[in-house]
């Protein structure tokens, strides 16, 4: 109680407390917290939705990544799916052979086989003995935790074999390469009984061991799920890959040219067009040095006329001009060291001055962690190629096929699939004066009008699987969820050049 000057008592609790205005700092803090909460809810919504409608939410997620300038690799992961309950018939070990994209396709196949046979898959081992001699392990290239978790509703995957199956405990797993291009019947009738006897099988070769066609639809879709969702690059690779893409996009539209004019490809294929006698001999010696490369004596010109050689840098330059690309086109070289180095790139660079390689866009210290790791460097080129406005491979190797399939999955992004057999014929005619430049240009564009990566059916050759279209280049079973394939793959589909 207090007393006024006139003697009247006053109750202190009736006096209202003074209103303290919020400071600018408090208002700012509330706004920041609200923004964070809203963004978190939105990202979680997209992550959950991606499980059910991946095509629809892919565009939304890309927009969020661009606005927030945050790579998808570090956004909140989707909630874990319930693990599949099944009695395992044994453990499958696999040693993948080849380069990054050959191994990538093999991993997808091995997950699918493990699912078919109810096996426990051990995280795949990567090739360290090929030409590239890359010491990278699976977890150096792919996000192993994501790989295991994202497939837990389909296949049980472990990082390593239980100790009781180690050699130290006297266990010797059966090692074998499965028969190439095999279907479900082969694995169920020939391979599954071996697990009942040995418990552990080690597939020491995995390239092209599952058929392209006549595989159950749910297994084909699982191959796609592994390829497009489960095989995610490590955060280090994704962060740098996104940076490369962002730098290129800021400079305008760009073409990713997979210029497969590299030493290993030329030695393996025997293609020496444009090489000196000394270089041709060097390539021949390299071919003989690798005993598992079967063909030794090769007629280079015959191979070229059959369309079995990668285009030279000079040929690629001429074809790009004929396709309508002007000299201001931004071209990213998605490849390793070009054989002959800058000397062989001179003509291409003269025609297209805006030739760019990753070494020109990134600081040396940024690429340092990937040096001497060819598969990790190839992963960067893979990301850029998938994101490019136009992708043009000069040879239809594993990277070209895997990127083509990825771009189809993302909405049939433009991919120029060069008809090398026809092109070398046209190139020779233009060079010897039989065809004028205008006639050459019209012919090149006409040949490729329907070779732009637009919807098409996968070619099937029942008795010659090596010659038919590769599943991962055109996974049509995974592209027709919202409408029938007959509607999607209609006559007259084409993509204009521009």
TrEMBL record:
Keywords: Carbohydrate metabolism, Fucose metabolism, Glycoprotein, Glycosyltransferase, Membrane, Signal-anchor, Transferase, Transmembrane, Transmembrane helix. One of its GO terms (biological process) is fucose metabolic process. The chain crosses the membrane at residues 28-52. It is found in: Membrane. It comes from Cannabis sativa. Belongs to the glycosyltransferase GT106 family. It is a single-pass type II membrane protein. GO terms for molecular function: glycosyltransferase activity. This is O-fucosyltransferase family protein. GO terms for cellular component: chloroplast; membrane. Pathway: Glycan metabolism. It holds the Pfam family O-FucT. The gene is LOC115699545. The keyword Nucleus does not apply.
């Amino acid at each position: 109680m207090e007393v006024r000057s006139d003697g009247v008592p006053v109750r202190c609790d009736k006096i209202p407390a003074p209103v303290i205005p919020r400071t600018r700092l408090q208002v700012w803090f509330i706004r920041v917290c609200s923004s964070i909460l809203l963004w978190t809810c939105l990202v979680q919504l997209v992550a959950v939705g991606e499980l059910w409608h991946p095509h629809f939410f892919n565009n939304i997620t890309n927009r969020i990544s661009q606005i927030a300038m945050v790579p998808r690799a570090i956004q909140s992961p989707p909630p874990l799916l319930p693990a599949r309950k099944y009695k395992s018939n044994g453990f499958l070990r696999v040693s993948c052979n080849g380069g990054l994209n050959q191994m990538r396709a093999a991993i997808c196949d091995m997950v699918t086989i493990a699912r078919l046979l109810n096996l426990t898959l051990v995280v795949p081992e990567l090739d360290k003995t090929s030409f590239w001699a890359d010491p990278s392990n699976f977890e150096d290239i792919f996000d192993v935790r994501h790989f295991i978790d994202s497939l837990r509703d389909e296949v049980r995957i472990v990082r390593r074999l239980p100790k009781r199956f180690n050699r130290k405990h006297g266990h010797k797993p059966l090692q074998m390469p499965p028969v190439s291009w095999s279907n479900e019947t082969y694995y169920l009738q020939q391979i599954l009984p071996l697990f009942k006897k040995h418990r552990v099988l080690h597939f020491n070769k995995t390239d092209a061991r599952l058929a392209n066609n006549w595989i159950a639809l749910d297994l084909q879709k699982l191959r796609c799920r592994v390829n497009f969702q489960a095989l995610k690059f490590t955060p280090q690779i994704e962060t740098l890959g996104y940076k490369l893409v962002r730098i290129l996009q800021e400079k305008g539209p760009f073409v990713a040219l997979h210029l497969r004019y590299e030493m290993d490809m030329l030695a393996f294929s025997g293609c020496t067009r444009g090489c000196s006698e000394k270089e041709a001999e060097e390539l021949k010696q390299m071919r003989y040095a690798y005993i598992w490369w079967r063909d030794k004596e090769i007629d280079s010109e015959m191979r070229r006329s059959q369309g079995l050689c990668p285009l030279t840098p000079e040929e690629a330059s001429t074809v790009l001009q004929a396709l309508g690309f002007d000299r201001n086109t931004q071209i990213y070289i998605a490849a390793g060291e070009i054989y002959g180095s800058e000397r062989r790139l001179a003509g291409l660079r003269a025609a297209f001055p805006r030739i760019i390689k990753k070494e020109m866009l990134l600081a040396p210290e940024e690429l340092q962690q990937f040096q001497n790791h060819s598969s990790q460097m190839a992963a960067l080129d893979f990301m850029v190629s998938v994101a490019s406005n136009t992708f043009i491979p000069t040879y239809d190797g594993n990277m070209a096929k895997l990127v083509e399939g990825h771009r189809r999955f993302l909405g049939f992004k433009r991919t120029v699939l060069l008809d090398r057999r026809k092109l070398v014929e046209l190139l020779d005619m233009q060079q010897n004066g039989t065809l004028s430049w205008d006639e050459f240009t019209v012919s090149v564009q006409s040949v490729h009008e329907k070779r732009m990566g637009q919807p098409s059916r996968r070619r099937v050759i029942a008795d010659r699987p090596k010659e038919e279209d590769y599943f991962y280049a055109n996974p049509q079973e995974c592209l027709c969820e919202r409408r029938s394939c007959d509607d999607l793959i209609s006559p007259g589909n084409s993509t204009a050049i521009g």
